[in-house]
Amino acid sequence: MDADPAKPVSAIPSHVVGGQAPKVPTEVRDQKERDDLKNAIDSSNRGRQPVDFDGPNGYFPAKAVAADFTGSSEKKKHAIHNGEIDVEGYNEGSMTPLKTSRAHSPYTQHPTIDFDGLSWPSKGTLERKEATDEEKAERLQKLTGAVRTMLECLGEDPDREGLRDTPDRYAKALLFFTKGYEENLRDIVNGAVFHEDHDELVIVKDIEIFSLCEHHLVPFTGKMHIGYIPNRRVIGLSKLARIAEMFSRRLQVQERLTKQVALALSEMLQPQGVAVVVESSHLCMVMRGVQKTGASTTTSCMLGRMRSTAKTREEFLRLIDRR
């Protein structure tokens, strides 16, 4: 008689099949935890290894690719379920290089990050960013004339003593309020992305933001809280505040601002998860319209594990005291 065929090996551990889990002595367990912690510290003390963005496999191309509004240049698209993009699987396990073409619209679900400094196709933005000193002076003069016209339309006399220099002052102030158009992500990060053996939450909270509402050109101000779970790649902490500053110093709506910061970090670090929460007060609600002075607006954008794992999301919200 032929021998019985070999029995398949069970995927269930033997101690589970028997119904009894082995008891690990407390001393052994504690020693293992100490050893694991020591190994992690020793590994971290080897020194940070900066990410080489300009290497052969670097993330930053020498020249950003022009936007392809037909969408034909995209090699891989996100899955679409019930008319919506699958956000949960947005960047989990992604090892693709940074996308550099601009989004078709500022309202798309996943606007790409353009390292020419543009996060969506706004006419004239790149022209302003790359302007020469002569072109900047011409732009300032043109804007000053527009402010003077505005004062005249309001019924004022731009030549009276109190308003004589106001058109020039306001033009300079407005250019400063929107200086984010002249900055790009690559220059802000400036190589401050490092390989690091860390996979726990990193949070920078209470980052002050000042922006202009694009609907009425009046300010909205507040605080931004940023958290991410590294995937062996961390960024200098001050860069988080600088990224928030770059995107806020543009004509914005709060919803888009929140999403842009989250997506920029997702593209830059390819982390396990990203969370951004913005709390702000809008003068377009306070000074005009409904005139509710106590109203505040909170928006959030969660990607990766921050969105798909409830415990991780709750930990972030608890640590920023917003749960």
UniProtKB/TrEMBL annotation:
UniProt source species: Ampelomyces quisqualis (Powdery mildew agent)
Pfam families: GTP_cyclohydroI
Top-level EC class: hydrolase
Gene Ontology cellular component annotations, sorted alphabetically: cytoplasm
Pathway: Cofactor biosynthesis; 7,8-dihydroneopterin triphosphate biosynthesis; 7,8-dihydroneopterin triphosphate from GTP: step 1/1
Ranges of compositional bias, category Basic and acidic residues: 26-39
EC id: 3.5.4.16
Gene Ontology molecular-function annotations: GTP binding; GTP cyclohydrolase I activity; zinc ion binding
Cited InterPro entries: GTP-CH-I_C/QueF (IPR043133), GTP-CH-I_N (IPR043134), GTP_CycHdrlase_I (IPR001474), GTP_CycHdrlase_I_CS (IPR018234), GTP_CycHdrlase_I_dom (IPR020602)
Domain GTP cyclohydrolase I: 145-320
Protein name (Swiss-Prot/TrEMBL): GTP cyclohydrolase 1
Superkingdom per UniProt: Eukaryota
Region spans: Disordered: 1-56, 97-121
GO terms under biological process: folic acid biosynthetic process; tetrahydrobiopterin biosynthetic process; tetrahydrofolate biosynthetic process
Protein family (similarity comment): Belongs to the GTP cyclohydrolase I family.
Physiological role: GTP cyclohydrolase 1 is the first enzyme in the biosynthetic pathway leading to folic acid.
HAMAP family linked: FolE
Keywords, sorted A to Z: Allosteric enzyme, Folate biosynthesis, GTP-binding, Hydrolase, Nucleotide-binding
